Amino acid sequence: MRSRRARTAAAARFHGPMAPRRRRGGTRLTSNDADTVPLASGDRQRRSSAEQQADTTPISTRAGGPHSPGGGPQPRRSTAEREGHFGDGRHGADRRRRDQPPRRHERAAAERRPEAPAQRPEPRVRRDGARAHLATPQRPATGRGPARPPTRPEDDLDATGPVLAPLGHLPALDGLRAFAVMAVIAYHAGVSWMPGGLLGVDTFFVLSGFLITGLLITEYRNTRRIDLRSFWVRRSRRLMPALLVLLIGVAAYARWIASPGDVGTLRLDALSTLLYVANWRFALSDQSYFNHFSAPSPLLHTWSLSVEEQFYVLWPLVVFLLMRHSARTVDRWRRQRQKAQSLALTVAVLGAEASALVGLALLLLGTDPSRIYYGTDSRAQALLVGAALAVWRGQRTRPISARARSVMSVVGCLAGVTMIVIWTTVSGENRALYAGGFLGVAVVVMLLVASLVEAPEGPVSKVLALAPLTFIGRISYGLYLWHWPVFLTLTATRTGTDGVVLLLLRLGVTLAITLASFHLVEDPIRRRRIRLPNPRLTVPAAFGGVLAVILVATAGTSASVRTPAELEALAKRAAASPQPTVTVHPGSGAPIKVLLGGDSVALTLGFSDFSKMAAAQGIEIHDFSKLGCGVARGMQRRILGEAGPTTAGCDQWPQRFAQRVDEVNPALALLLVGRWEVTDQLRDGRWTHIGDPAFDAYLGRELDLAITTLGAKGAKVVLLTTPIFKPTEAPDGSIYPETKATRVERFNVLLREAAARHPGTSVIDITSVLTPGNKYVDELDGVRLRDDDGVHISNDGARRIGTAIIPQLLRIARGSAADAAAPQTVGAGPG
Asked: Would you state the pLDDT for residue 46?
């Protein structure tokens, strides 16, 4: 038995001012104890930098092993050298306990020490399978008590991952970030050869899952705990400051640049971004149809930040619970932690597969692809793939061989080429991506990351470690945050430039803002060169200040401007609302029943003050419009650069028209279409559009069918010309073809030709009412004619049309048989 004095001295050494706290059932370290390592007995000793390096060296190559790292026999080393290797870096008699002076009995023992330390017994090497263990000879017992069992060096090691050095900073990973952010920017810039550039986001996901999980595993290996609070504070300090600055900039955009109809949407976008739930707002907003008309949100790209932040909240909790449950005591800590890491690897792999299956199930159920694209449950697969790589790496017990590193270099080259091919060939709307393709992309990126980490001298690593790429990678977060709002602000209309000049201008402004944010905000706060006084008060105050700026900047939206959500609600009200009360004038007979239908443009005309004005003149308007539907059937269409199928039910428009004619038995049938007919259409396996003779002939036949169907009960058919739409810029500054006036003009020619083929059919020109001279205008004489999307008709614009055409409708309805015998083209002025 040890004497009381010896036990007291040992306790004092362990329970000193730097000793970790203890608790029942085991030992717990604080976050300041990152330089400690668990001992087999449950105690801890301080590790020097040399010891930390030894923990990442294969046991077969450590002191006392049979072979040197070079492959030859290892020379015999003296006791001082061995102690220097396993100690705190000092050698021979100069070795001392860290930060403690030598004690008196130690000085006496040093004086009695033999001068030839090499004559002491050498350690024996014991081999168990492939690993060599260093067995230290047991010293004879002294009078102080029975001899303690020998402490083996491998007992002091991390048994589940002793060969892996801390990852540290790899320039090649910065280079990979650079490629990812450049791919996303190229996609948003409308670069034609980068249709899959948006998949650069998946690269960020894999990297985030890998690095974050690696930090958690390393922290637990070193401290036997995971400080969740410190982890979340570090993440917030890294990500939040730049985002708050961005939200202030977006508030300025909403105040002075955004259209009034978009301000309300921006308010919700900003609030959801501030709370890191923007992805769910975009996924569940159910406005995919209106994405073709409304201006894109400058915060649309923040969905990926929300997915990552939700992962940062949930995944560390999962890892913490797995580790905590499996390592409650010290005695079996290593074996239990190995089991916990295996369980974490299983959870990561199965979680990634489950996430991919969720996306596939949603696709098979007919869910809007935007729900799959934005949902955390369906996009977490990439993050979990990166997490699985980190856990696997932390669990290995031996380094990979030189041959394996060569293989990993080849795998990295193949993965890099595959990633670039996917970016340049696979469109973001490709159905295969939502049917498991995202998981395949994540695996490709994971192989590339594994190559960069395990074979840092490989060719891919050297390319990605080039200085320009690492520079871009270090500021990739700011580039990702700022490029999209800058692109939406610097348009061809505002700058007077387009093409390459516009792209260079946008990139220059983005880089300038990013560098300013990085050096003035992000880096000083992350490195704590800027310290907030009393963070418990200043951080909530900063949040509150940004929230106030957002609310003030987005207040006061004009009530006369309909938002896309209001337009969708308008269609539901139009289907359920009764007809306006018709005023019957003496001698005029019964009300004149009029059918008015077509696409959403016809809806905004029919369900407005136009119907009330018509009712006051004895005309009863009945609507038969359907959102997203014209007369072109059975084809995919491309609008604003995105291809997609027609709205469900559009192909059945002849049956819908006939049904409404039977129900109403109208005197007049008005048709207003054209928005979808001027888009690019996929017909017979090739993209075509109006102006192509074959497509023009097809549209002519569809218009003939519409006229015949509407006039089947004797109604007089009136075709309303299509107004010019607002020219909309593509990302490269060019004008989307379906918004060009030339296409609308060509469709109006086809309308008149169709009317000429059907006697009694009239054409009323509303183009000159809303867009005089075939030039788009938002306002005339102080009256707003169109909604902010530049497509739909505002209430004031509908009143202007009513003033111009209602008298003409009355003349057509009451016209003589002779007037009905010939086709009519009726002009309409502003009234």
From this structure: 40
